[in-house]
Design a protein that fits this description.
The chain has 17 helices and no strands. The chain has about 450 residues and is an all-alpha fold. The chain is globular, with a radius of gyration of 25 Å.
Amino acid sequence: MTGAMTALAVVLPHAGFAQDAEAAAPTFDEIGPYLMTTLLFLVGGFLVFWMAAGFAMLEAGLVRSKNVTTQLTKNIALFSIAGIMYWLVGFNLMYPAEWLMEGYMGPFFSITSLEPVGLAAADASLDYASVASDFFFQLMFCATTASIVSGTLAERIKLWPFLIFVVVLTGFIYPIEASWQWGGGWLSEAGFYDFAGSTLVHAAGGFAALAGAIVLGPRIGKYAKDGKVIPMPGSNLALATLGTFILWLGWFGFNGGSQLAAGTVGDITDVGRIFANTNMAASAGAVAALILTQVLYKKVDLTMVLNGALAGLVSITASPLEPTLFGALWIGAVGGIIVVFAVPALDRMKIDDVVGAIPVHLLAGFWGTIVVPVYAPDTSFGTQLLGFVAIGAFTFVVSLVVWFILKALGGIRVSEEAEMTGLDMSELGMEAYPEFSKG
C-alpha cells in the first residue's frame, strides 16, 4: 500500500498546491490592460524611433551636399546621447513618481532602474505598464526634441559644441519642462492640455533652435547687403521627401502611443481615432501649402509642401483625439498655411533656419496648442497660452544661456574658410558624395 501511494504521489505531485496556484493566478481581465499598454508603448516607441531616420533624411536632403555627412553624424550622435542622458537623469527628473525613485542621487537626480528579469504578475504594477516600456517610449520624445534643433543650425555650427548642448537639452531642459505637465507638475494641475507634445516637444525644440540661431547667426551669403535673400537649395529633394514620409509614419506612434492605455475597447478605438486625425491633419497641411505656393509664387514649392505636411502633424499633436475628421482637416490646413508665410518672415528678420524647423515646430506648435479648447472639454485659451509661454520662456532663456556659455568657452561656429569648404571636410574629413567633388 505504501509503495502504491508513493507511485501515485510521483504521478500527481503536489496536486492540491497546483490547484491553489491555478486559483490564485491572475486572470486576463487583470493582466490584459498591463500587457496591451506595454505593447502599445513598445510599438509606439519604435515608430517614434523611426522618426530619427526621418529627421536625418529630411535634413540630409535640405542641406547642401558639402554638409550632408556632418548632418547625418549629428543626427545619430544626438539620438545616442539622448538615450544615455535620459537614462542617467532625464526619466526620473521628468517623472518624479515614488516608484521611480530608485537611484544614487535621490529624487531629483537618479538613474533609471528597470524591473527584474522574469517579473511575476504578482509583483507588477498591473494598473499601468512596464517601467521598461514606458522609459523606452518617453525616451523617443526626448530625442525628437533634440532632432528639431539640428536642422535649424545646420551648415555653420561646430559638431562638439552642438553635442554638448544636446547633453544639457536631453538631460535637463526637456525633462524639467516636460515634468510640469506629464510629470504631474504645476501646469498639469493648472489645467494645461498637451496630449502628445505640440508645446512640450515641438515648440520646446523650436525655442531651443531659435535661441541657437540667434547666437550663431546666418550662413555666409544667405542675406545680401540690400536685404535680398539668396536661395541655397538642398542637395537631394528625394531624400527630403523620403524623410517627410518617414516622419509621417512615425507620427502615428508619436500621437497614438500617447493614449497611454490600450486595455479596453474604448482605448483601442481612441487610438484608431488618433491615427485617422493625425493622417488627416498631415494631408490637409500638405494640400494647403501646395495650393498656397501655387497662388503666391505661380509654381508649387516642394519644400513648402513637405513642411506643410509636418506642420499639419505638429498642429494636431496637442489634441489628436478630440477633433472630428473635419476638425483635424482645418487645424492641419492652418498649420500648412503658417509655414508658407512664416518661412519668408523669418528670412526678413535674418533668422537663418536651414530646414524650416522654427515655423514647423514652434509656430505650428503654438497654433496646435492654442486651438485645443475648440474641441477638448475642460480646457481654456488662457491656460493653454499660459503653458505655451511658460515652457517657451524657460526653454528659450536657458537655451540662450547655454549657447552663450558655449560660445564664450570655445566658440560654436566654424571658421569662414571651413564654412565655405563645407563641414564634411572641415569637421569630419569625409564627404557624402566624394565622386562629385572631383569634378
